[in-house]
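Re: that chain you flagged

S.,

Sorry for the slow reply, it's been a week of failed gels. I finally had a moment to sit down with the sequence you sent. For the record, here it is as I used it:
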Amino acid sequence: QVQLVESGGGLVQPGGSLRLSCAASGSISGINVMGWYRQAPGKERELVATITKFGTTNYADFVKGRFTISRDNAKNTVYLQMNSLKPEDTAVYYCNVHRLWALQFQDYWGQGTQVTVSS
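Prediction finished late last night. Pasting the structure tokens below so you have them in one place:
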């Protein structure tokens, strides 16, 4: 019902920056929380940052001060500006939307985009 298309991943050197984008389409009504998760090889998927439709943000401790999540409700797009990237930030980053519709919660995931931080 909700389709998510991610872009912006790539290879950067330590200290570099990337900006991830995730555009939602389809049954977008009722989308409340949008966010980013990441998963490194051999690791569990972990929350990076979330943002509500009202602009309230939440960040994992390991990205505070370096990453910024933002949202354009008119374009149904969520962004993740990543600065001061570290090798340990290397992971597949997944966009997530949490939707409330007909009094039921629904979760949707993007296809993932690879972020590699290496010299």
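What I noticed first: The radius of gyration is 14 Å.

Talk soon,
D.
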